[in-house]
Structures are given as C-alpha cells and as structure tokens.
Write a structure and sequence with these properties.
The protein has about 300 residues and is mostly helical. The chain has 13 helices and no strands. Helix 7 packs antiparallel against helix 12 and helix 11 crosses helix 13.
C-alpha cells in the first residue's frame, strides 16, 4: 500500500479536520436515521435524544479545536475525542439498528459467503475446527482484541511524530465511520444467531470462551456483524505500523491479526464477507487519510 510522505502539520489552517468531519458525519447520519424511525412510530425517542446530545457535544469540541489549531493540546484532545466518540457509538449503536432499520442483512451476507466458497457455507465447513480445545484457544485471541486495540491506540497517540499521529487518528475515524454505516444500514447478528439451527452442535470451550459468551449476552447478544471491526481495526493498526511507523511492531502484530480473524469465523460471530469488507475498508482508510490531510495542509497555506 503506497501513500504520500507524511505531510508536516501546517502552523495554521481554517479548514475542518477530516477526522472531525468523519465523526460528525456518522453522528449526523445516526441521528437522522433515528429521527426518521421515530417519525415512523418506532419508540426510539430516548436513543434519539442520546445521539442528539452526542452530536452537539462533539460539534462543540470540533468547533473549539478548529478555533485553536496551533494549541499544543489540540491534537491530543482531537485524538481522545474522536476515538472516545467512536467507542461510545460502538456501545450505543449496537441494537438500535435492528429497531430503526426494517430489514436484516444476515440472509444476504450468508448468500455472499456461499458465493465466496463456491456454493458452500464457510461457517458450516469450519465446524470441525470448533472442538473444545480450538474453541478455547481462539477465544483467547478473540478476547485479546480489546487490549491489543487499546495498546495500539495508546502508541498511536503518544508514541509517534505529530504527522503520523494525525494520520493514525484520521484513518481510525474513517474506518469506524464506514464500519458504523455498515452496522446501521446492514444490521446483522452473524452465523451464531442466524445459522444456529444449521450447526451440528453449539460451541463448547473453556472458561475464556464462557466469559466471552456471557459478556456478549450481557450486552444483548451478538450484533454488528458487518463489517468486522475486530478484523478491520486490528488490520489497520498492524498495516499502519508496517507502512508508516514501527515495522518491527507491525510484524509482531501480524500473527495476532491472523488469529483474531480466524477466531471471528470459528467462533461464528462473523461471515467471511465481513472480514473481506473490513480489510477493504481499513485499506481505504489508510489510503485516504494522508491524502485528505495533505489537501487540508495545502488549503492552509
């Protein structure tokens, strides 16, 4: 993946930051979608109020950051605000989509998976891998996504030159914005729910797998299958370091990304097409981020 050299941050630009714009875009789309659902009589008034408040809050933050482009704290506040808002949306958006959108994407995703596998379902083909031992082993890496993501974000915010940090935050915002559009308009619960009757037996692992199941069930059950942010965010963090940051760290990440991807399929939380879409979106975000920032820097001269 080629990208232009990191553009030094300009001393001043009045143009809105692409990470701010991406975050405002997804907040506005979610809010408008919920408003349309409420207008149809769907009882989502509380969720609409929450997302209106989130949109207003981030709008205020973005305005403040735009008014203070030269402040030393601006890039750090932007990074925390953008990433924090995306994490908030991850929790607030989950099951709202199934009520706001009058269709389910699982049938189409399952058909797409069969096309990829020449007429057979990858989820069903991989049933033999779902032994108790493999289930528990892969559950460890599925759960490792959270600390891996947090560590990647921490290193992305405090362990990079300013231009790289700006590019990382922008790519992160673009990936999550595109992914949440998928969560919202293609609501899906994944093979573990949609194809439950097609499997020979439920998965049986050990304590790690049981903890994952309890945690997901406590959040209302599987949701947000398309695309897989487990894979998209993991791929983005590794690819960014391989091409723009610490190559050694990027290569260390690669086996973890592969095992996380395998876990999402074997544990039945995602279709293969979810992973393909995630990698494409992450690649697009990595491609677009430096170019959007270069355009913004040029506008500020």
């Amino acid at each position: 993946m080629s990208s232009p050299p990191s553009t030094p941050l300009p001393p001043h630009t009045s143009r809105a930051h692409p990470a701010d714009l991406a975050t405002l875009l997804i907040l506005a789309v979610v809010t408008a979608t919920l408003a349309a659902a409420v207008a149809r009589g769907v009882p989502l008034e509380r969720d609409l109020a929450v997302h209106v408040a989130l949109l207003a809050a981030f709008g205020g933050i973005a305005f403040t950051l735009r008014r203070n482009p030269d402040a030393r704290w601006t890039p750090y506040v932007r990074g925390v605000a953008v990433i924090g808002m995306m994490f908030t949306l991850y929790s607030t958006l989950g099951h709202v989509a199934f009520r706001a959108i009058p269709w389910l994407a699982d049938p189409a995703l399952e058909r797409a998976d069969r096309l990829l596998a020449l007429g057979r379902s990858p989820s069903l083909l991989l049933q033999s891998v779902g032994t108790p031992g493999w289930t528990e082993f892969l559950s460890v890496f599925y759960a490792a996504f959270i600390p891996y993501l947090y560590l990647s974000i921490l290193l992305g915010l405090i362990g990079r030159p300013a231009a790289q940090r700006d590019e990382f935050v922008t790519a992160f915002a673009l990936l999550y914005t595109a992914s949440f559009l998928g969560y919202l308009f293609l609501p899906a619960r994944g093979p573990i729910v949609y194809m439950a009757d097609a499997f020979n037996a439920p998965l049986a692992g050990g304590p790690v797998h049981a903890t994952i199941v309890r945690t997901i069930d406590g959040l209302g059950g599987p949701h947000g299958a398309f695309p897989s942010l487990h894979v998209g965010a993991s791929f983005l963090a590794a690819a960014f370091d391989l091409h723009r940051g610490d190559r050694l760290r990027g290569w260390i990440y690669v086996p973890l990304v592969i095992l996380i991807a395998a876990a999402t399929i074997v544990l039945r939380y995602h279709y293969v097409v979810d992973l393909v879409a995630a990698v494409l979106l992450a690649s697009g975000a990595l491609y677009a981020a430096p170019r959007l920032l270069a355009r913004r820097a040029g506008a500020g001269r």
